Amino acid sequence: VLFRSPPASAETVSAEQPPAEKPVYKVQFLSLNRHLKDGARELRGVTDFEIYEENGTLRYLKGRETTINKAKAIQRELRETGFKDAFIVAFYKGRKISIQQARALTE
User: Fold this and answer.
1) Cross-strand partners of 27
2) Is the pTM of this model over 0.85?
3) Which of 1, 18, 43, 107 gets the highest tally of CB atoms within 10 A of its CB?
4) For the segment 43-66, what is each residue's pLDDT rounded down to a tens digit?
């Protein structure tokens, strides 16, 4: 993670971190080759996000969920905000993995 935006309020921050041995689901909602300032028009009001660099491209991610259903709720919210191409990605021990691999690790 290159950057984590400040949360909109203290209520949006969870002190509880997912266990390291479980995969984490996040929703990618934007992909750019540059950083956006907090509050930038392109973010459409989205706060509490993080930026992940992959192959020289900055991936804007929201959420840190231990179940895919919770990630789907964030995906719906982002799509309603206008990010129609938002999709779910999975991470395990800090590395990006496929959704299929994440599901296998939770079964």
Assistant:
1) 62, 88
2) no
3) 43
4) 999 999 999 999 999 999 999 999
